[in-house]
């Protein structure tokens, strides 16, 4: 049987995000996410904020944002600053299949970004979920080499072991726990550290807080 490709998984992940957004309360839309300075609404916009940019708009966005990814993200999100919750839902619904920049690496960018950011929302407002294991394994693999994530640096010299699925990587002191917590930790989210065990966990803690 052929494995689903990254683009199919990315579309599935965004569909799951859309389902989540449709059920949020007014308070949850305005709640702080795990991303510093971003509310839940901001995270939802960010996930698809590059999809509707033309090549010219994308180039202009990077020029205005400068060398820092965080500033480029802010520029990309400005056009959606005045959207209400329903308009954000409509935006995500238009962008279920990634386009443009987020379709890069055969959908790997969109898949990884959407998965991590959905968890940034869910962890912040207390709505956990079980990510399909096959999808999560592909996200973990891609995250380890993704150019805009600190995962490779955070995990350097450590052995990461998922306790709820067949996934492991690296060598050295062990950090083990649920695969979702491993993903969120190597992506730089200290909130997930409490779900991990092993001697390598303290190294992860120091690296995350240093960055």
Overview of the molecule:
The protein is mainly alpha-helical. It is built from eleven helices and three strands; from the N terminus they run H-H-H-H-H-H-H-H-H-E-E-E-H-H. The chain has helices at residues 6-22, 26-30, 40-48, 55-65, 69-77, 85-94, 108-125, 133-143, 151-155, 179-186, 200-210; strands at 159-162, 168-169, 174-177. A three-stranded mixed β-sheet has the order 2-1-3. A hairpin with a 5-residue loop joins strand 1 and strand 2. The longest helix is centred in the middle third of the chain and has 18 residues, at 108-125. The protein is globular, with a radius of gyration of 17 Å.
Amino- and carboxy-terminal Cα gap: 42 Å
pLDDT < 50 runs, ≥5 residues: none
Rg from C-alpha positions? 17 Å
Number of distinct helices: 11
Strand content: under 5%
Indicate the mean pLDDT.
95
Number of strands: 3
Structural shape: globular
Instruction: Kindly state the percentage of residues in helix.
Output: 40-55%
Order of SSEs: HHHHHHHHHEEEHH
Provide the structure class: mainly alpha
- In spatial order, strands of the major sheet run 2-1-3
Largest sheet: 3 strands, mixed
